[in-house]
Write a structure and sequence with these properties.
This protein is an alpha/beta fold. The protein contains 4 helices and 10 strands, in the order αββαβββαββββαβ. Helix 3 crosses helix 4.
Length: 215
């Protein structure tokens, strides 16, 4: 008779549960860590608060997503992001913009007593290792002038960044995303990309309004 059959029922259940658990050593956690750009651009941002980056649902999950040749987006529990994807994207992008331009860009919430001059918002529409072997990072970013003193500018621009992947693996996906964030940081720091620039309008003084007399 098999030895497991002589175990008490509770012990048998526990043994089967342990046998069914996945091996934690098989679970890989991948970092988002943009490389140093190696270039410096003019500081056109000043101080800015970067709002939490908005990601598509498949990119905000803890599992590293990828596209298969049939066009489906898939993921496995064996490969996870080392940090919450939105938080990791936000903090690394803020650091990369600061490093490449000398600006002071900090993820929300703003921690300093002096308010920021600008607010940056990034809305990602595509963030995926495509079946073609290219990582695509696309969406829009917005830079709002918070000073409202006139003469400032607001920007609404798009980005569509494509990074060739060395291999179609989760590690290569993490490396390509990190490279794409570095490129996006340079684009935001230089306020470049297709889009529009809107001049800040100073609020009209209250005494400039015509008020009807009250009888």
């Amino acid at each position: 008779m098999h030895r497991l059959s002589r175990l008490p029922l509770t012990a048998l259940i526990a043994a089967l549960a342990v046998a069914g658990c996945s091996n934690p050593e098989k679970t890989a956690r991948h970092l988002i860590d943009p490389p140093t750009a190696g270039i410096q651009v003019a500081n056109r941002i000043g101080t800015a608060e970067l709002k939490d980056v908005s990601l598509p649902e498949y990119a905000s999950d803890q599992e590293v997503a990828f596209q298969t040749p049939d066009g489906a987006v898939r993921a496995t529990p064996d490969n996870l992001w080392a940090d919450n994807p939105s938080r990791a994207f936000t903090t690394t992008l803020a650091r990369a913009i600061s490093d490449v331009s000398g600006a002071t860009v900090i993820g929300t919430p703003w921690p300093l007593a002096e308010p920021p001059q600008r607010v940056i918002e990034v809305r990602v529409e595509h963030a995926l290792a495509q079946a073609s072997g290219v990582y695509r990072l696309g969406g829009r970013y917005f830079v709002a002038d918070e000073r409202l003193t006139g003469g400032g500018t607001n920007h609404a621009r798009s980005f569509d960044i494509r990074v060739p992947m060395a291999a179609q693996t989760p590690a290569a996906t993490a490396a390509a995303l990190s490279q794409a964030i570095s490129i996006l940081a340079q684009q935001i720091a230089t306020l470049s990309g297709p889009g529009t620039t809107i001049a800040t309008q100073s609020p009209a003084p209250i005494d400039s309004f015509s008020l009807d007399p009250i009888f």
